[in-house]
Amino acid sequence: MASWSEFAADEPRLADEIRLLLQQYGPGFGYLATVRADGGPRVHPVSPVITDDGLYCFVIDSPKRRDLERDGRYALHSFPPEESDDEAYVAGRARVVDDPATVARLAALGRAAPQVDWRLFEFSVDVAMLTRRDQASPPSAGRPQVRVWLDPTAARPARRTVLAADGRRGRHGFDTRRSAA
How far apart are CA 79 and CA 132, in angstroms? Predict the structure, then answer.
């Protein structure tokens, strides 16, 4: 699991562009996806704090915090810009930061209210993705430019192919015959 600083050292331009999208409205703003106890996704808006040292987030006592404490997997997606459909995505694992000096420094930087029951998490970066779309072209004309970084030190699980009873499978291994309801 790479830290934000390790990712940024490996791909500085990509890290800068992702940071710009996450901080386009001033302080960080994005959507945090966590894994519920039943395995389903949970999505909430958050204000990530990005420093040269790492990618952090203050999380109040909430279902998303309990998700991170139980199962640290996360995905963070940028809020869409007003003038484009560009997007940034980072995923990995969250861990609680207990060091009082680090917590105090980031609380001051992120303007985290001291009277709120929050906990600081640092997010590792297993995958980072940036998608840029040409704004001069019509939406259906041309493919977006996608840049992906995968942590070179992370172990990749073997890929499984999940087939439906009739041998069909969707792009993500789901049975495509079932309705979404």
Answer: 14
Q: Is the pLDDT of residue 92 over 70?
A: yes
pLDDT for residue 132: 92
- DSSP characters for 96-112? E---HHHHHHHHHHTT-
Contacts of residue 171, defined as CB under 8 A and 6 or more positions apart, other chains included, come to none
Q: Is 17 helix (H, G, I), strand (E, B) or coil?
A: helix
The C-alpha atoms of residue 158 and residue 70 are separated, in whole angstroms, by 24
C-alpha torsion angle, residues 92, 68, 96, 116 (rounded to 10) = 130
* Amino acid residing at 170: G
Residues 6 or more apart whose CB falls under 8 angstroms from that of 127 comprise 89, 90, 91, 92, 148, 149, 150, 151
Which residue bears the tokens 């917590």?
Answer: 103
Q: Look over the chain and give the mean of its residue pLDDT values, rounded to a whole number.
A: 84
Residues forming a β-bridge with 45: 31
pTM of the predicted model as reported, rounded to 2 decimal places? 0.80
Are 122 and 54 within 8 A, CB to CB?
yes
The answer to whether the CB of 146 falls within 8 A of the CB of 131 is yes
